[in-house]
Amino acid sequence: MRRLTKIAAVTAVMALAVTGCAKKDTQTSSASGSSDKGGLCASGGSGPKIGLAYDIGGRGDKSFNDLAAAGTKKASEDLDATCKESEAAPDEPDSAKEERLRTLADAGYDPIIAVGFVYTPMVTTVAKEYPKLKFAIVDGAAEGDNVTNLAFSPEQGSFLVGVAAGLKTKTNKVGFVGGVKGPIIDPFAAGYQAGVKAVNPKATVEMKWLSDQADQKAFANPPGGKTAATALYDNGADIVFHASGLSGNGVFEAAAAEDKLAIGVDSDQYLTAPKDQQSHILTSALKRVDVAVYDFAKAFKDGTTKAGFDVYDLKRDGVGYATSGGQIDDIKDQIDSYKEKIVSGEIKVPNTL
């Protein structure tokens, strides 16, 4: 509980660059649990040797796992880094996550980056066993002199897409689909609700949650996301924002089927959505996991990593909103006005419900 409280204090999910090519031939190291979705990093590089442990959903979620991959790929290109990817299995025990990190450490990978708060206790444990290695965790609150917690202020970006929803809704009813209620996803919901209310006090925000724990039902369940979003649309919402990882694909399916609007999360999801869904994606709340992962890799190469929390907010361009598709071009000035007020401190965005 103490660790979750620490997460809530600083965090609760750019177009993807995964498809870019390095100058030299690329391949992904093969090992048990490693990704086989195509080369991510160059082989034989002289830079950092990055071990990347994915969260539920893995690479291909078009969300924060893919963003971590994008940051790692950029490190391959700019820092001559090599890497090995390792994916989480559905419903695996905590011991499997620990062993995944140990396997990367024993294979000589340094630094090691874990994606997702579920790795918090595992990173704390394994980092103590390998004090000479550097570890980072996205969205976590791990402890250790050799651990960097890459944290975000997702409530700030969520506030801005809430402003967009509040201005664009025609029914004064909007919705939110969250993976699991708690300190990681609550900031998205709280910021979104605050943004909607700031510009449209008459609007209501209905929320649905996909699971009561961070499992496959929460973040890798597109059918569940579609069912939840459809219920919100049927109840009068005309815009639904999701913070549910891969489950959000179902939200976009529902938006297209119901001829309504949806809001993406983490990456600019308009860019990776099927063409028949793009016109139904109003915007996305950006969470620049790619930037944080790349910055950590660069700091490792420069010998400047620091233990503790490294927080990415609006002021650092660590969160924000997407404009692809042009549907919010007419209200961008209003959204940016709120952005300036958040950066200046005039507006304090809530991160709890």
Strand order of the largest sheet: 2-1-3-4-5-11
Shape: globular
In whole angstroms, how far apart are the ends?
18 Å
CATH superfamily of the largest domain: Response regulator
Which structural class should the secondary elements be placed in? alpha/beta
Number of domains: 2
Ordered list of secondary-structure elements with their pairings:
Layout: H1 2-10, E1 49-53, H2 64-79, E2 82-86, H3 94-106, E3 112-115, H4 120-129, E4 135-138, E5 147-152, H5 154-168, E6 173-180, H6 186-199, E7 204-211, H7 216-219, H8 222-234, E8 239-243, H9 248-258, E9 261-266, H10 275-278, E10 281-287, H11 289-302, E11 308-312, E12 319-321, H12 332-344
Parallel strand pairs: 1-2, 1-3, 3-4, 4-5, 5-11, 6-7, 6-8, 8-9, 9-10
Antiparallel strand pairs: 10-12
Helix pairs in contact: 2-11, 3-4, 5-6, 5-12, 8-9
Could you please describe the fold and organization of this structure?
Keywords: Cell membrane, Lipoprotein, Membrane, Signal. There is one protein chain. With 353 residues, the chain is of the alpha/beta class. Helices cover 39% and strands 19% of the residues. The chain is built from twelve helices and twelve strands. The N terminus is likely disordered.
